[in-house]
Every structure is written in C-alpha cells, then in structure tokens.
Amino acid sequence: MRPRAPLAPPLTRLRIRTHAAVLLRSFALQGSWNYRTLIGTGFAFALLPALRTLFRADPARLHDAARRHTALFNSHPYLAPIALAVVARLEAEGESPAVIDRFKTAVRGSLGSLGDRLVWAGWRPVCLLAALAALFAGAPWYAALLGFLLLYNAGHLATRIWGYRIGLHEGKHVGERLRHSRLAHAQHALNTAGAFLVGLLLPFAAAGAAFAPLPVPPPSAPAVALATLAAALGTRFGTAVRLPAALALAALAAIGIALRFAA
C-alpha cells in the first residue's frame, strides 16, 4: 500500500476552522440540486470558505474559481467530502484549472456508485433491519427508532469525516488509496450482516411477532439457526442465492402471519 502523502506546505494556508466550514457546508450539498449542474452549485457553495482564504487578495481569481466549481458535478452526498478535500488541496497547491476539472470528471461517477452500494444498498438496510429486530424482540417502538437514528448517523458522520481526511491527505492520488482501503471489505461485511438479520427476522415475522412481540429465549434458537444459514448463503454464494432464499422464507413468513389472523 502506498504511504500517505504528507500535506503540502501551501495547504497550511487553510486553517482548521476553514476545513470545518467546508465539511459543515457539505451537508447542504444537495440544497441547490438541479438538472443542469446536479450538485455543482452545492459543491461550489461548500468549497467557498477555502476559496475565500486562498484568493482573498485576488477577487478576480476568487470569482473565476467559484464560477468554475459550479459546473456539472455529481457524487454520493456522503462521499462528496472526498472530492471537496482533494479540490481544496489542489487549489492550495496552485494546480491548473484543467487538472482540477479532469479530477472532478474522473471521480464523479465512481464516488456516486460507490456510495450507492455502500450506503443505500448496505449500511441503511442493515440499520433498518437491526431496528426491526429490536422491535420484534420486544423493544419499545421509540427505542427502536432512536437506535436506528443513532446507529445510522454514527456511520453517516464517520463516513463524511473519514472521506474529508483521506481526500486531504492523498490529494489527486485518492483513487489509488480508495482501491486499497477497507471499503470493499465493508461492503462484504454489510452484505453478510444484512443476510444474517433477514434470517433473524423471518421466524419472528412468521410467528406474528410484528403484532405480539415474542420473548427472545427460548424461541430465539430457530431464529439463530436460520440466521446462520442465511449468513452462510449470503457469504458463500452472494445475491444469486440470497435473494431467492429470502423470497422463499418471506413467503413462509406471510403464511405464518395469515395463519395467526385465521386463528
């Protein structure tokens, strides 16, 4: 793995509070989403504190830089801080606008697809399934909801902060760093966790736990066995087996709920 690049001397012109301002503004990245530039306007808005610091003495360059960064750009919102940090570093190092634009063009698709797989198809479903498992096991609905919000946003905030830091340290070589990061392992772990939780939830659903929460011991033994099987299938064979297995088990759960109502 390539060692992290040291921060370039020009980057010391950006203080910690400037980086904090850029990171905080990244939460509003999609506030000006439109079909022409997607999140380009929001990207320029988030980057503006850094641009003001770098070009304070040259209003013409500041105006030009702000205008350039309103161009078309897209990314998953949670991974956009990676691009923001890299661009802030490139601007501080005095890279040409052409190099910066090429970098933004190169990463906009990959950051979007990577974030979709990691967050929308991985982290969010796992957090939701964990909250449902707690609810079916007898936790109050408000405790399950609060647990979901805390767990999900812990991962959300950690991803934003990690992304900004790695972008700042790696600069335009961040793509290589991402290829050797733990993101691929994280996606695999989330798939396994999702399969496990699906297996854990289905016996509860089949017994009508959505309407009358069940005590965890001893009925949890079949759930653990089924969860282990689901995790094994998901880990060994992937979506090709996990999806039809989940559909078959869901059908059994629906039959169980129907029989409960009939009784």
Domain tally: 2
- Series of secondary-structure elements, N-terminal to C-terminal: HHHHHHHHHH
Structural class: mainly alpha
Main sheet attributes: strand count, strand direction, barrel closure = none
- What is the number of beta strands? 0
Helix content estimate = over 70%
**Overall outline:** elongated
C-alpha termini separation: 61 Å
Uncertain parts: 1-9, 215-220
- Put simply, the count of helices is 10
Average pLDDT, all residues: 82
Q: Beta-strand percentage? A: under 5%
In short:
With 263 residues, the protein is mainly α.
Layout of helices and strands, plus pairs?
Layout: H1 16-25, H2 40-54, H3 59-68, H4 80-93, H5 97-136, H6 141-170, H7 174-179, H8 183-206, H9 220-237, H10 239-262
Helix pairs in contact: 1-2, 2-3, 2-4, 4-5, 4-6, 5-6, 5-8, 8-9, 8-10, 9-10
Keywords:
mainly alpha; 263 residues; disordered N terminus
How is this structure best described in words?
The termini are far apart. It contains ten helices and no strands. By secondary structure, the chain is mainly alpha-helical. It has two domains: 9-181, no CATH class; 185-262. Helix 5 (97-136) packs antiparallel against helix 6 and helix 5 packs parallel to helix 8.
